[in-house]
Amino acid sequence: MRVQPKPLKQYPLFIRGFFAKQKRTYGEVLLPGLLWGRSKWVFASVALLYGALNRKNSPLNGVIRSMVTVRVSQINHCEFCVDINGATLQKRGASEAKMLALREWRSSDEFDDLEKAVLAYTEAVTYTDGQITDEMMADLRRHFDEDGIVELTGMIAFQNLSSKFNAALDIPPQGFCELPGLKTDAQ
Predict the structure, then answer these.
(1) What's the CA gap between 169 and 59, in Å, rounded?
(2) d(CA 139, CA 117)
């Protein structure tokens, strides 16, 4: 990693509480949290935003949210994010075949119209030269109201923030997802 975590005792108490929950959930503290935690204000803001976007009553179901996070992570070359988000996608019920086809979703029969609309939009928002088209928005409107489109856009933007942060600081995977074919896109 390009930046090292501080000793746990040096983090504010409220951040150590998050770390304790991560340890209960994942069996260990997540490396990105240790780095985000070097700035208590940034950590708190990122944690609140993620919590708002990944809540159970989101208009986006869990599989869709996880597909978005994995696909953005693949594009942004974040091995940690592919690892943890791939494991979450698996826990949320996506088949192994669907997970492995995610990079080539356009040519796969694994994805339905909703998932294809979401993935097309995800890529257009994520790629610098991506174009958001009227047709793309019409496809999304068949599945989501405007609140849902805002939440989807927020989830994509958040995952771009997270995966670019982790990739820039060279945060390695922590071994949550054991599907080798889920790797990031070729550079």
Answers:
(1) 32
(2) 6
Tell me: the pLDDT tens digits for 26-50?
999 999 999 999 999 999 999 999 9
Domain ranges of the chain: 9-53, 62-179
CATH 1.20.1290.10 fits 62-179, yes or no: yes
pTM of the model: 0.95
